[in-house]
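Session log. Operator J.P. requested a structure for one protein chain; no other inputs attached. Running the standard single-chain path with token output.
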Amino acid sequence: VQLMESGGGLVQPGGSLRLSCAASGSGFTFRLNVMKWGRRAPGKGLEWVSYINAGGDSTWYADSVKGRFTISRDNAENKLYLEMNNLKPEDTAMYYCATWEDVRGQGTQVTVSS
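Structure written below.
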């Protein structure tokens, strides 16, 4: 499977971004797989921020993003999304989409700064 994230950038505190992840590759059926978003802030370890089940009707969020981030997926388009609102400087990180088995893309940088 190949995963490609996009949508990162520089945003002011309180702003919003929508990250996308496109999945491709033979042997991987996106619609049958749990997907997740994680992030790595400078000098810190990887933090998983959200999961979504294969059908898209069950989600989990880390306490650090609960109420601000929304994960979703489009199984017809093989895409995963992360809507991020009310962004804070502590959300600054490289964001990765990943399969349940931790196959990840190269990431997209999110920087929250005034």
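Operator note: The radius of gyration is 13 Å.
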